[in-house]
Amino acid sequence: MKVGGHLLGKRITKINPPRGGAQLVRLEAVASFTCSRCTQTKTARSVAVRDEELLCNGCYGRLQASPPAHDRTSQESTTDDLARIVVAELDGGLPHSVVNTGLTVEWKFSVRAEHLLHGTCPVPAEMADRAAPQEPLELTFLRGRYRIRILDEQKGIRLRVRGDEAFLTGLTWQPFVLPGTRVSVRWDTWKSLRLAYTPLDEPVVFGGTVARYAYDPRIMTRELAAFDARVDRVEELVLLALRELGYLDEKGRALLPQEALIRNTIERARPEPPARKKIDGAIERLLSRETLTWEEGSINAAGMLHYPARRGEAPVPLLCYAPTLRVAEREDLRNEAGAGHGMSAHRVAGHLMRIGHLGKEASTEAKAAYREDHAAAGLAGPHVLPRGYTYVREHERGM
């Protein structure tokens, strides 16, 4: 069996290393087969092969996560280790690539949900040490790259310093700015600041969300988690735990061992966590639909998870969420056209703002405002602010 060969009448596009006597392969197209372990008929691209038997994704994962019954002490230790695995955290959206010429200070950063929620922008020490906190600043938002275009101008922005952290406050981010959007900033000393977004060659749909500007896919996966999951409650809890706590690779894939995912799903759902049997069932359904797949990573001596697997570290099967990525179509862009563009004063329609992984709820005022505006607009459905959002009422922006 090799890449380019055939299984179930479909071409093999990927073969994972053998584990536990079984080998997971990826097919070019979906195929139907009967799993020899659970005896259910499955339709999927991923199939595990053990001797002459075929296993579904779920049974393959359970096989890898279950050590031999004769080694109970080792099993308990392994299960506990995998449940409490360590995942390196993302950067905190702090300034990087700072260049200080004396006349200008330039830096880059990735927008985080907290910046959007509080209207802030991180500032490097090179600016904080020279700018006067009491002096209001002016901001110009630019669409960069080939043809520079002014998107917005704002006044009255102020510098704040809190401990070792410096940031600008009083910003109003454009509605199209997502958590993960990459921003380049230039401060002409004692003058205005310019914040530039880099447009993509073509708008894309990342995990169900339209992105027009360059972004960090890891932050997108992490901080948009609460808004893309629209499945049953237990499946949603599983996906949220995986995307918000899992290891993230540069493509935005989120990965965790099954035991870690189950443990965190239970702990985050308190005080009414679902039964483990229901979580197992939710994972099985997500695997059967290929919303989740199995991949192989590794753990070092300190319990730190890595993906792909590193030589010399203990291999471990990982459940993987991979965000869908495709070029945006006209239908996707219909509600996005013209959002936030123009330099003159203009009205910004009321809109939802993502607050994602922050674990915060919208204020009572925001909920009341959404309920009032939603009802006044004559929209159908409950006038209840969706979970994971806050509401920004219509306001004026620009010069």
Short recap of the structure:
With 399 residues, this protein is an alpha+beta fold. The protein is built from 11 helices and 25 strands. It has helices at residues 57-65, 72-83, 113-118, 125-128, 217-223, 225-228, 233-245, 258-268, 276-288, 330-333, 364-376; strands at residues 6-7, 10-15, 23-34, 41-50, 53-55, 96-100, 104-110, 120-122, 137-143, 149-162, 165-169, 182-188, 193-197, 199-206, 209-213, 247-248, 254-256, 292-299, 305-306, 314-321, 325-327, 346-348, 351-354, 389-392, 395-397.
Strand order in space, largest sheet? 6-7-12-13-9-10-11-8
Unreliable stretches, pLDDT < 50, 5 or more residues?
67-77, 338-349
Distance between the termini: 65 Å
Largest sheet: 8 strands, mixed
Helix-strand category: alpha+beta
Mean pLDDT: 80
Count of alpha/pi helices: 11
Classify the beta-strand content into a percent band.
25-35%
Query: Over the alpha carbons, how many angstroms does the gyration radius reach?
Result: 24 Å
**Helical content (DSSP H or I, runs of 4+):** 10-25%
State the total count of DSSP E strands. 25
Shape: elongated
Describe the fold and architecture.
The structure is a single chain. The protein is α+β, with helices and mostly antiparallel strands and 399 residues long. Helices cover 24% and strands 35% of the residues. It has eleven helices and 25 strands. The protein has helices spanning 57-65, 72-83, 113-118, 125-128, 217-223, 225-228, 233-245, 258-268, 276-288, 330-333, 364-376; strands spanning 6-7, 10-15, 23-34, 41-50, 53-55, 96-100, 104-110, 120-122, 137-143, 149-162, 165-169, 182-188, 193-197, 199-206, 209-213, 247-248, 254-256, 292-299, 305-306, 314-321, 325-327, 346-348, 351-354, 389-392, 395-397. An eight-stranded mixed sheet has the order 6-7-12-13-9-10-11-8. A five-stranded antiparallel sheet has the order 1-2-3-4-5. A five-stranded antiparallel sheet has the order 16-17-20-18-19. Helix 2 packs across helix 8 (258-268) and helix 7 crosses helix 8. It is elongated, with a radius of gyration of 24 Å.
